[in-house]
Amino acid sequence: xxxxxxxxxxxxxxxxxxxxxxxxxxxxxxxxxxxxxxxxxxxxxxxxxxxxxxxxxxxxxxxxxxxxxxxxxxxxxxxxxxxxxxxxxxxxxxxxxxxxxxxxxxxxxxxxxxxxxxxxxxxxxxxxxxxxxxxxxxxxxxxxxxxxxxxxxxxxxxxxxxxxxxxxxxxxxxxxxxxxxxxxxxxxxxxxxxxxxxxxxxxxxxxxxxxxxxxxxxxxxxxxxxxxxxxxxxxxxxxxxxxxxxxxxxxxxxxxxxxxxxxxxxxxxxxxxxxxxxxxxxxxxxxxxxxxxxxxxxxxxxxxxxxxxxxxxxxxxxxxxxxxxxxxxxxxxxxxxxxxxxxxxxxxxxxxxxxxxxxxxxxxxxxxxxxxxxxxxxxxxxxxxxxxxxxxxxxxxxxxxxxx
Length: 404
Fold this sequence. Notes:
Elements: E1 21-25, E2 32-37, E3 40-43, H1 44-48, H2 59-62, H3 66-81, H4 83-89, E4 93-95, E5 100-102, E6 110-113, H5 117-127, E7 147-149, E8 155-157, E9 161-163, E10 166-169, E11 178-181, E12 185-186, E13 189-195, H6 210-213, E14 214-222, E15 224-225, H7 226-232, E16 246-248, E17 253-254, E18 262-263, E19 283-284, E20 287-292, E21 295-298, H8 309-316, E22 328-330, H9 345-348, E23 356-357, E24 363-364, E25 372-380, E26 386-397
Parallel strand pairs: 6-22, 8-16, 9-26
Antiparallel strand pairs: 1-2, 1-5, 2-3, 3-4, 6-7, 10-11, 12-15, 13-14, 13-22, 14-16, 14-17, 18-19, 20-21, 20-25, 23-24, 25-26
Helix pairs in contact: 3-4
């Protein structure tokens, strides 16, 4: 399900319908919190005088809770909409070209799901080629989301290089496993949900409390070594094949900015367990674009995700696991029904069998050293114009040399 097309973006998609949060610094000055307005960053500490915005991360502000989030957003929007307010904000608007962007928040814990039915089916086809089902989904798929825990220390800010991972993989001849650089390095373009308010140990966060805990969303690229992953996925599942790098966009788009992008969510049959049944519309009609070396290779539709962000949060905490400010959880690769809507090269190229052509005349089944991957995202804003989720980018580098 997708909504109507948004009107053209104003201010590059960073107008007052958006107002995403980030952390920036200028030469000789400490980092601080700001919101992006067009091609500027509004220094919130300067314009508001609130010391919570003089921090080097969003964590202290996010911990204040939803009432504070809404009040701050309303205040900034009010200033930018009035003549007197614009005069007051003028001295605190910093041109983007003179600002250095920093990680927007300190990642506490990181988890990633496989929320797309199409991506889950692509993985199953590659893992079990003997299966002839048109959409082979893992056992138990309709009953709970599939997920794994990642490494908070491997979450990288957009623009960071990604060394090709090294690990153990299956030998083509069925002999002893090989150890070396991944030969099937992939991407997973998706959404990340940023937790603002935590919970106590033993208390699950019910699906109805999604907006009380989640502050906003970012773009993610969960880099994946398919060959390392294939070897380790049985019996315990993903480990080194997906724990080496996850790239994150620098701007956190508040949930309130995505009100016009909310949708009922994809039909689920059979109905999931009661604790996972939706009671609000938290499907998000966000369109991603995946580019390799500047060539758009797919446009994944987030509205087609089988499991929505509120369901993922409810499942993440169903066993009583506590949430902390700065927790990040991702959707995994977003994929639609068509090949040109797949959020991974695994799905886009049929596990490398049908390489995608790039504008420079080369083609890719999987990534080569030197390739730059960029994921962007857009949605309809409350005023009808398109808003931008920014971009997340990373360049593949050769493996880090090993000591003898």
